[in-house]
Amino acid sequence: MNVKLKKHMKDTSNYLELAQLPDGSIVLRRSDDHDNPIVKIEFSSESKDFLQGQELTVAKEMIRAGIESVSGNVSDLDDFFDKQREKFSKKQIIVH
Questions:
Q1: Closest CA to 27 of 18, 16, 36
Q2: Which of 3, 6, 43, 53 could bridge across to 47 with cysteines, CB 3.0–4.6 Å?
Q3: What is the pLDDT of residues 50-63, one digit of tens each?
Q4: What are the φ/ψ torsions at residue 47 (nearest 5 degrees)?
Q5: Is 0.70 surpassed by the pTM of this model?
Q6: Residue 17: burial class (beta carbons within 10 Å; 0-12, 13-18, 19+)
């Protein structure tokens, strides 16, 4: 089961998706990179019993809450991750 979080206007093949893998774990990944998830969530058996099939919904809210605590705004998850990547790629490298 996949949940598409947002499509890019220019490239509809590249977006973030929340996917439940065959082993039951849930990953947030780019649609064009299934081998390198951004986030992976695994619920215990006890948690799965309690959630009664709502793991994907809870995982989505967990990710949203985490991003809100860092950025204060999660209206656009793709933009958040793009800005974070740009921020880290622009760090100055100093060699002594």
A1: 18
A2: 43
A3: 999 999 999 988 98
A4: -65, -40
A5: no
A6: middle
